[in-house]
Amino acid sequence: MDIESNIRNFKDFLQLYNQMTETCFGKCVDNLNSRILNPNEKECIEDCASKFIKFNHKLMSTFVEVQSLIVNRRMKEVEEQSQMMASQISSFNEDQRLSVDISKADSG
Predict the structure, then answer these.
(1) Label partner for 52 (CA 20 to 30 A): which of 42, 67, 81, 105?
(2) Cβ contact 45:37 at 8 Å
(3) Is 70 left (phi over 0), alpha (psi -120 to 50) or beta?
(4) pLDDT at position 23, please?
(5) Domains of the chain (ranges, CATH numbers)
(6) Would you call 44 exposed, middle or buried from its count of C-beta atoms within 10 A (0-12, 13-18, 19+)?
(7) pLDDT for residue 26
(8) Where is the Tim10-like domain (predicted)?
């Protein structure tokens, strides 16, 4: 991995972390008068963060699975296109040879 890729991955992680923090804070923290979370807020934040992380892991595993299928399908399409082009080129070359052979036969 190069440095740019590492930086992009770190930015993605920070964005995800910030999103989780904002979501769970907004959902769970009711009282801003204390520096300490009450037991209900603490439990809510732990549950929220856990669900967020589990959801993200599930989403990423599904993405990897689907992406793999898409890449395989695309590779198959490219292979089929290249075979079709090779067939067309071969057909064209055969037509050219026949044309040259007919020209030689007519002039000879």
Answers:
(1) 67
(2) yes
(3) alpha
(4) 95
(5) 3-107 (1.10.287.810)
(6) middle
(7) 95
(8) 6-64
39 close to 28: Cβ distance less than 8 angstroms: no
DSSP reduced 3-state for 30: coil
Residues 48/50/51/57 CA torsion (nearest 10 deg) = 140
Which pLDDT score, from 0 to 100, does residue 108 have? 56
C-alpha to C-alpha distance for 101 and 91, rounded to whole angstroms: 15
Amino acid making up residue 5 = S
Q: How far is CA 85 from CA 69, 74, 79, 81, 97, in A?
A: 24, 16, 10, 6, 18
- With beta carbons less than 8 A apart as the criterion, state whether 45 and 20 touch: no
35: which DSSP letter?
Answer: S
